[in-house]
Specification:
Two copies of one chain form a homodimer.
Chain A lengths: L16 H6 L6 H5 L29 H4 L10 H52 L3 H26 L8 H9 L9 H16 L7 H16 L10 H4 L5 H20 L2 H12 L5 H29 L22 H36 L3 H21 L6 E3 L26 E3 H6 L3 H9 L9 H18 L9 H18 L8 H17 L3 H11 L5 H16 L5 H8 L18 H4 L7 E2 L1 E3 H10 L4 E6 L8 E7 H10 L46 E3 L10 E3 L4 H10 L4 E5 L10 E4 L5 H7 L1 H6 L1
Parallel strand pairs in A: 3-5, 8-9
Antiparallel strand pairs in A: 1-2, 4-7, 5-6, 9-10
Chain lengths: ~775, ~775
């Protein structure tokens, strides 16, 4: 056992009562509020590089071996075939991820456009016949039905599919496996739940869910589907390690963004800026390939649909706004207006984060009570949304139709800006045009240029307030819900509002103001810059507004950063996922590595008694155990290396024991296939319960040397914790051995894990650091 | 001394004769050819993190301290002011870099357009008057004069300014200081040399030089100008460390691309994909800000010029091509055509790299002979270029002018597609329209859409061959020369050639084919993907062609990667800059860290005799020395840490010596200002010659503990070299201590430096690895 403390990030129930009590004195009320919502969690991943220079079967399981660059020129021709297989497979997987994500993205849009379109057509028809109450019933009924369907899927089949999914994917790519977050059931619910949820008229987006879907697809493909079917599993063994899985899932996340926004470059940048914690140039290229495939698939399918073969799915299906601003110049007051827009947008954005946080904490209390409460909450929000969407347009006045004969007014069919609602012939209700539309169409209406008169100030104000509030109260209910679309909607209406207000001062188009407003809100909540900028560019297809979008994003991010963290970071923290930040916290500089290692340390001998190993495995949840060689095997006690729980389990299952404490060497491994030690998929590896060790075997010995990582990364106990954190983070470690400064002491002081770097752990041991902080 | 071997990457003359002889047996002919061209080199940078947890003055010099995130919440209010200063300064510097680079970019274009424009107008006028020979003399004379001016600047003032500069910037960001590569004189020559060189009609670009210029500007601003003027030096002390300089230079490089192409997002991605070796999210944001400033500055200045106040600098000054392809759909044969285009482009691209490499090696022999030979070479190439540019158009037939009255034909003024050259009234020479134009205008002509008939197949073929060859022979002469424009020119003519050839099969526009051809060549030479894609998008302002551009880039890069490395990597290698790749070489897996450490190791005592230190400093060029505590200071010999040459020099200069071997502790440091130990600019630190140690002081002792980094990163000697390389590279180290596996031996085995990971070093020790490889 590496650390005597019974509760650890790597075992279940890290934040169980016991832990909070133990460190009770150091944890203030403030911290108890911050108790994470996600309780059940397993983390079964191995240290990134488990082997030294000795060539042994274990070695060929690790990423260093299967990494393309590394053994491009390996010596044995047998290996060359493996490399070829690996490279081909890597690109095939990227292609498949792109294809699948593109298809799912298309399916998502197809579903939403048809379901929501049917609902809206029905409502519109009834409204035209002046059957207002029936129209409301139809509208609210459809919404409720769809919402309940989504909630049932979410609550009973895969609770992990609720919400955006981006925080979980981000945490996964940082090295934290949240419970069943990439399971096939989650994928299924995420796809269908998202279609149903968006169709139900909620103020939610499909972008977060698409990212999560892409990640799930990547994970599923990387595992070769289900184990039952033994599909191509021999080839996929190359991907049974942390690094390759992580790479695949990065590709998947990028493909998700690409599919949601039809923004291939934006997708790559999103993966780079927001999702991934480690990045390599090689990955840039592969991700780019995946998103290119997504773009091609979507384009092909949309072209197919232009001929009208996809029901109500029209040209406007996948969001692609043409803000043809045709601005070639802007004056000082324009820039000033944009500055102010950015500042206020940043404030609103960070407020949004604040409220989302509060609402999430409240909802989590309700959601924890069980599936039925979850569904009840969804029903409540669905009814609220329906009432707002249907009720608020009554507040708007009827506007005479524009005289331009090219514009169909009032709108008859599925899409269009001019909903008649309650208005008489030749008039339209501008608020209904926003509310009684899909979110995509509403955004398109807000972004449309050359339409200064279309929406009144009053309507825009109502819409802004309603969407801002609905967006906040909707996130957290048990349906897959993205945050991009609510934020873009609120931001666009805010921007258009400002644009209409100061229309006399500025020459910029109100559509452009709407875009800039959306950018400011996005910058204020998500805190991304380059990727948002590129996504917005790809959405609107106008490069000339680039400087203004950049300016707004920079300002709103700067402003919002003064108040709180980005919304995804906030959710990661709230869920209690032990995210390793890329920089060390300031108080870490005042501690050394030895300060946060907590004992007593339990180690194994190089040749250890089976009973001792079994006992350690049973009584702790640790995944890494130091192995110490002692006389007579070595001259003095020395650190032999680190052995992983998963490898110990495989070794014990092999039952190659000896009655004496002797080195059996690599012959032990001849009983195993080279890939027996490969990292199994979540929940698929050998478990402790699978072992059937007889009583008399308990006294036998097993040589741990063949499965020991003989050169783990180590730090000296006097190293600044900040420096150790840097090493831990940059190399993506899971275990870091702390060795003594002075010779003559036991060769290892302890092991640092991810958990030891969390503020909860450190401030738990050193409460006064918190006061100083 | 850390390693007994006298020649080291950190000392001058790493690849001197001595070294080659010593390892002669292991170095084949092939390797001697690869002997680097750059001989003089100093590398005076410190290990990335020099301090542990003990708060001492040294500590506050290191990046960990000045890093914004780290001490955002530092305890002492005095520090808070420093943090504020640091943050304000960081952003101010980013702003200034953006402003300065934008201005230089504008100046560059202004200069080129006016000088080259004047030259071309003169030639054109003379041609219209049928004075052909006089026209040639004027043309060639202008070219020669400008070329010689550029060459004189380059050869006599700053030889480091020749060539692209991107490889050197890339190496700097990897941690290798090439000699005077970022010096003010280099900046000066790069700016003016680039203007003169491009104006001289060479087939060279301004992009590489702009990147280098941006990096120089960043370096200069970060150092606070010259030391003489003491300008804001107190504030800039925060930037006197490796990491902050590196960050600034990354911003500068991105700003350079942004200024060259007016591509702000492309600039950021270029810095990320090609230039930077380490990347943080925080940097993404700052870089983005810098490029946004560049974009705004350029836009403002260009708007100013639209009114005609900038001489011949017109709307077309900064390249911005509008390939309004208006493609909404493409068929299978279009995609097939694009595939083939990409494959052939990839082959041509890698061939380009191959020839550039050969030509560079040949030129280096000439250039090494002295400045006059350099100038002679420039004169030769200039005459060759003039002859081609003026002579080849005679091969083209005169084409009747298009009937469209909107098009001015033949061209009278500065720009325009229809040069009359030798042709009679109402006719134009299509080849002259390409050759007798600035490179930017030639590219614009090639990219122009809806002009299928403008250039004949024959002319395009001649132009392609000529530019391809001229581009190859021009790079390597003593003028600042970018590679982007030659490659784009050659690629665009190739693409347009293919487009014209298969015009009957494919519906795509020839302008689009030219763009795709340029993309394929760029992918084949530079091997970037995402950044090139975005740069091309920003250049052409058309997002609809994105999937095709992505496809072409991916294919051409894949094809070309089978033959050789990217052109910048190739130049880095040829120059002998010890670039640390992000992945370990395969043969490293068969070695352990202890294998490549070469002895005998010279270490210092914790309290060391001044004479010994001075001797070690004098007789070696090493920058890191292990410090060992021995009894009576410690119980047993133990590794105290690592001390840097630069800090030793400062300490010795302070002359705080004691006559006994005692710990004097931190009082030693009271003689020093906190920033005395800050990393000085290149060539500005304390030098060995500055020390004046008396003979009797030689026997005194000095306590090294206060300036020792007490917790350097260490690896055990049995660690796989590949793993050690990963640690070294990921953390950006300069020294890595190798400690023994078993206790009881001396506490340090040796020190690994960047040099120990180079193939030259490893294959020098283990020649048989090469055979196996």
């Amino acid at each position: 056992m590496d650390r005597g403390e019974p509760i650890d990030i790597e075992s279940d129930g890290m934040f169980s009562k016991g832990r909070l009590e133990r460190n009770g004195s150091g944890i203030s009320d403030d911290m108890i509020i911050r108790e994470p919502l996600l309780k059940k969690r397993t983390n079964t991943t191995s240290q990134i590089a488990i082997v030294g220079a000795n060539v042994c079967p274990i070695e060929s399981l690790d990423y260093e071996i299967v990494e393309n660059d590394l053994f491009k020129q390996d010596w044995r021709s047998r290996k060359k075939i493996q490399i070829f297989q690996y490279v081909v497979l890597k690109w095939t997987l990227a292609l498949l991820i792109g294809l699948a994500t593109g298809l799912v993205g298309f399916f998502n849009n197809l579903g939403v456009e048809n379901i929501a379109g049917f609902k809206l057509l029905l409502t519109n028809d009834l409204m035209l016949k002046d059957r207002y109450f029936k129209a409301f019933l139809a509208f609210a009924g459809c919404n409720l039905g769809l919402a309940v369907a989504a909630a049932v899927l979410c609550a009973y089949i895969a609770p992990a599919a609720a919400g955006s999914g981006i925080p979980e994917v981000k945490a996964y790519l940082n090295g934290v496996d949240a419970y069943s977050i990439l399971a096939p059931s989650t994928l299924f619910v995420k796809i269908f739940g998202s279609v149903l949820g968006v169709s139900a008229g909620f103020v939610v987006g499909k972008e977060g869910p698409m990212v999560h879907t892409g990640a799930c697809i990547a994970n599923l493909l990387g595992q070769g589907g289900s184990r039952k079917y033994h599909l191509t599993w021999r080839w996929l063994r190359y991907f049974k390690n942390d690094r390759d899985r992580r790479d695949l899932i990065t590709c998947g996340a990028a493909a998700g963004v690409a599919a949601a926004f039809r923004a291939p470059v934006g997708g790559v940048l999103f993966a780079l800026e927001e999702a991934a914690s480690w990045w390599r140039s090689a990955l840039l290229w592969r991700t780019f390939f995946t998103t290119a495939v997504v773009a091609v698939v979507l384009r092909a399918l949309i072209e197919y649909c232009w001929s009208g073969k996809c029901g109500l799915f029209g040209q406007g299906g996948l969001i692609m706004f043409d803000v043809s601003s045709a601005i070639s110049t802007y004056s000082t007051q324009d820039v000033l207006a944009v500055l102010i827009l950015g500042i206020i947008g940043g404030i609103f954005g960070s407020l949004y984060n604040y409220f989302v946080d509060k609402v999430l904490r409240t909802y989590s209390i309700i959601n924890e009570r069980g599936a039925s409460f979850k569904i009840l909450l969804v029903i409540t929000i669905s009814l609220l949304t329906s009432c707002c969407s249907f009720g608020l347009p009554w507040l708007a006045k009827c506007t005479p139709c524009p005289t331009d004969p090219k514009k169909q007014c009032p709108t008859i069919g599925r899409s269009g800006n001019y909903k008649s609602f309650q208005c008489s012939e030749g008039h339209y209700n501008d608020l209904a045009s926003l509310f009684l539309n899909t979110n995509d169409d509403a955004i398109r209406n807000l972004f449309s240029s050359g339409t200064e008169e279309e929406f009144s100030l009053y309507s825009l104000f109502i819409f802004f307030v309603a969407i801002y509030c609905l967006g906040i109260v909707t996130y957290g209910i048990a349906v897959p819900a993205g945050l991009f679309i609510p934020v873009i909607l609120a931001g666009a209406s805010y921007g258009r509002l400002v644009g209409t207000l100061i229309g006399s001062i500025s020459d910029l188009d109100v559509g452009l103001f709407a875009l800039l407003g959306a950018a400011s809100f996005l910058g204020g909540t998500m805190r991304m810059t380059v990727s948002l900028c590129v996504i917005l560019l790809e959405l609107t297809n106008d490069l000339l507004m680039l400087p203004l979008v950049m300016l707004v994003l920079l300002i709103s991010k700067t402003v919002a950063d003064n108040f709180n963290k980005g919304v995804y970071d906030q959710i990661v923290k709230m869920k209690g996922l032990p995210f390793m930040e890329s920089h060390a916290e300031p108080y870490m500089r005042h501690l050394v590595a030895g300060d946060v290692v907590s004992g007593p340390l339990i180690t194994f001998n190089g040749v250890e008694k089976v009973g001792n190993i079994l006992h350690a495995l049973k009584t702790t949840g640790h995944n890494g155990f130091p192995v110490i060689d002692e006389p007579p095997i070595s001259e003095a006690p020395e650190l032999c290396g680190l052995v992983l729980r998963s490898h110990l389990l495989v070794l014990l299952k092999g039952k190659k024991f000896s009655s004496e404490r002797v080195l059996t060497g690599d012959e032990v491994l001849q009983r195993f296939d080279a890939f027996d030690f490969a990292k199994a998929g979540s929940g698929k590896g050998v478990k402790l319960e699978d072992l059937h060790i007889e009583e008399d075997e308990m006294e036998l010995y097993v040589d741990l040397h063949p499965i020991t990582n003989a050169s783990p990364y180590t730090v000296v106990e006097t190293m600044s914790l900040a420096k150790a954190a840097l090493l831990f983070r940059e190399l993506g470690l899971r275990h870091l051995c702390v060795v003594p400064k002075t010779p003559g002491r036991p060769p290892i002081v302890g092991i640092l894990t991810r958990h030891d770097f969390t503020p909860e752990h450190i401030l738990g041991i050193y409460p006064n650091l918190k006061a100083q902080k």
